[in-house]
C-alpha cells in the first residue's frame, strides 16, 4: 500500500470514528431531550390538575353552582363564591306572611312594575325605586347574570334581567358574620336552580330576597326563622313573575318552589 493510500485510509477511519462519536452523542442528547420533555409534560399536567381542582368545586369543598349558558346568561366576570355552606335545619314555619313577621322582615308583594326596557351593558344604573331593585330597565341579552353564588355583587342591570326570567335572588350585607353567610349558602345549596346569591353593600337590610316586583327585606338575620321566610318567599314567588319564561333561561338543579326535589332537567 502506497503512502497516499495509507493516508486516505487513515482519514477514512477518522471520519468513521467521528461519525460514530456524533451518533452516540446525538442519542444521548435525544434521551436528554425526551427526559426534559417528560418533566415538562408532567409539570403541565400537575398545574392543570391544581387549577381544575381550585376552580371547579374547590374553595373548601363548596360549589357555586354557576350555570352559564352561552345563549342565555353570563357571569360577566364576577367571581364565584365556592365556600361550603352549613346545611339548613328542616323548615318549621311554611306560611310566608307568618314566617316574615316572626323573622321581622318587610314583605312587599306585587310592587309596581318599573318596566322591561333593554339597555346596553355599558349603561349606568337606572334609578330603581326599591333597594334591592325588583324590576325596571336592564341589560340586553345575553348579559343577564347567570345563576350562581357570587363573592361580589354583580352589576344591577345584569341581575335585574335575571329577575325578569323568574329568578330569585338572595342578597346579604357584607358585614353579616361569616357563620351566618355560610348558613345562607347552605340554604342556597338546596335551591340553586334559577337562583342567585351575592353580597350587596348598598341595600338597607342584612338579608333581602327578590323576585320580579316582590321583596322580602330583613333588617336583622335571625337564623332558622329567616331561612324559613326565604323558603316560603321562594315557594310563593319564584318563577311566577317577570314576563319572560323561566325555562327560556335554562337551568338545572332544585328550585326555590320545591327545594327538596332535584329538577328533572
Overview of this structure, please?
With 265 residues, the chain is of the alpha/beta class. Helices cover 36% and strands 11% of the residues. It is built from 5 helices and 8 strands, in the order H-H-E-E-E-E-H-E-H-E-E-E-H. It has helices at 3-55, 96-103, 156-164, 178-188, 224-237; strands at residues 106-108, 118-119, 138-139, 148-149, 168-172, 195-199, 207-211, 214-218. The strands form 2 sheets. It has a 6-stranded mixed sheet with strand order 1-8-7-5-6-4. It has a two-stranded parallel sheet with strand order 2-3. Strand 5 (168-172), helix 4 (178-188) and strand 6 (195-199) form a beta-alpha-beta unit. Helix 2 runs antiparallel to helix 5. The longest helix has 53 residues, at 3-55. The protein is globular and about 100 Å long. The termini are far apart. Residues 26-61 have low confidence and may be disordered.
Summarize the model shown.
This protein has five helices and eight strands. With about 260 residues, it is of the alpha/beta class.
Largest sheet: 6 strands, mixed
- Strand tally is 8
**Given the helix and strand composition, which structural class is it?**
alpha/beta
Overall geometry comes to globular
From the N-terminal CA to the C-terminal CA, the straight-line distance is: 92 Å
Identify the strand order in the major beta sheet: 1-8-7-5-6-4
The helix tally amounts to 5
Task: Report the uncertain regions.
Answer: 26-61
Chain-averaged pLDDT: 82
H-E string? HHEEEEHEHEEEH
Q: Fraction of residues in helices?
A: 25-40%
Proportion of β residues?
A: 5-15%
Rg calculated over all Cα atoms: 30 Å
Amino acid at each position: 500500500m502506497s503512502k497516499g493510500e495509507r493516508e486516505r485510509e487513515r482519514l477514512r477511519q477518522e471520519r468513521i470514528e467521528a461519525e460514530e462519536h456524533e451518533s452516540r452523542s446525538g442519542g444521548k442528547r435525544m434521551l436528554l431531550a425526551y427526559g426534559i420533555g417528560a418533566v415538562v409534560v408532567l409539570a403541565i399536567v400537575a398545574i392543570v390538575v391544581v387549577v381544575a381542582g381550585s376552580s371547579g368545586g374547590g374553595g373548601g369543598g363548596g360549589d357555586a353552582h354557576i350555570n352559564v349558558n352561552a345563549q342565555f346568561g353570563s357571569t360577566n366576570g364576577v367571581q364565584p363564591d365556592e365556600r361550603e355552606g352549613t346545611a339548613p335545619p328542616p323548615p318549621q314555619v311554611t306560611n310566608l306572611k307568618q314566617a316574615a313577621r316572626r323573622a321581622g322582615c318587610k314583605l312587599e308583594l306585587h310592587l309596581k312594575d318599573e318596566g322591561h326596557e333593554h339597555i346596553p351593558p355599558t349603561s349606568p344604573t337606572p334609578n330603581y325605586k326599591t333597594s334591592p331593585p325588583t324590576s325596571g330597565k336592564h341589560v340586553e341579552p345575553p348579559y343577564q347574570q347567570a345563576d350562581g353564588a357570587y363573592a361580589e355583587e354583580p352589576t344591577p342591570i345584569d341581575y335585574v334581567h335575571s329577575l325578569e326570567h323568574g329568578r330569585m335572588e338572595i342578597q346579604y350585607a357584607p358585614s353579616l358574620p361569616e357563620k351566618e353567610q355560610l348558613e345562607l349558602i347552605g340554604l342556597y345549596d338546596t335551591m340553586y336552580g334559577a337562583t342567585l346569591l351575592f353580597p350587596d353593600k348598598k341595600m338597607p337590610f342584612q338579608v333581602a330576597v327578590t323576585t320580579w316586583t316582590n321583596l322580602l327585606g330583613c333588617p336583622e338575620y335571625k337564623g332558622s326563622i329567616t331561612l324559613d321566610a326565604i323558603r316560603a318567599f321562594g315557594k310563593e314567588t319564584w318563577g311566577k313573575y317577570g314576563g319572560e319564561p323561566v325555562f327560556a333561561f335554562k337551568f338545572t338543579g332544585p328550585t326555590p318552589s320545591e327545594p327538596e326535589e332535584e329538577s328533572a332537567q
